[in-house]
Here is the input.
Amino acid sequence: MIDDRNLVRMIQGGDMQALRVLIRQHERLVLHMVRRVVSNEEEQKELCQDVFLKVYNSLGSFGFQSRLSTWIATIAYRHALNHLRVQKVKFSDLPSDDMTSALKDFDTPESMVMETDLNDRVRELIGRLPMQYRTIINLYHLEEMSYAEIGSIMDLPEGTVKSYLFRARAMLKEYVKRYI
Amino acid sequence: MSIDDDNLQRRMETKEAVEPNDADAVAYKRLFQILTETDTPTSLGIEDAVVAKIERQRKTSVLLDYVWLMAGIAFLAIVGLVAIVLYGPRLLLSGWQWNIVALAACAGVVVTLLNSIERRLLNR
Here is the structure.
């Protein structure tokens, strides 16, 4: 396995095979960042491609101040935010204190009766959370990033990241409790 | 969020054992399980598309460079022609008599040389 420094050096030297390796290594991370922004699969792929294009074009400015994955995630997060702005999609930049509003109207009596997979229901519920909460949950649980890394990606203090994560999980727990 | 919630989440994060009869603890255990499971596809297969986009970008950039180079040469030629029309075909510079055609050729060589140096530096 090639280490990040060598990989970056090879790409800067024009090695397209090295770029393919970088994409394969980080596509899941990038997809986690953009998939909540757009639901359409083709659009998601398009956004991911644009993120990697930006990564390629900005590689010269990357000085390994952070991990390569953290840097790529930062680009993906900002690209996703820009996409929302361009699309003029209404989103909550500062999540409201009333987190339970995400739960409102989520479960109709019919859907509670239907034996839908709890995993899918929880994922759907996460999709209803404000973007910052969703991103933090994904980065912490799926990408196993630290609070500090998430903070640097999203430009938030470590304490805020922790507080958002704990609040989101407490809310999701209340939902899971109803099912078990 | 209660203090209990806070404690339970901390314990789940550090994988400490929790009370099996506590409904909150059981719910958290199930939730943490769900949160770490991903439904993301393992591969998107976008490598070729990204490489193709980069190639396209590179071609456009090369084309733009040539357009600028040609525009520069054309501008130089026009300025040269205007100079010849206004001041005649010979030029006196610091005691040297320059042929205007030779001067234009020299300028063309310098512009091409600078362009190729810049290209090499940018591709590093």
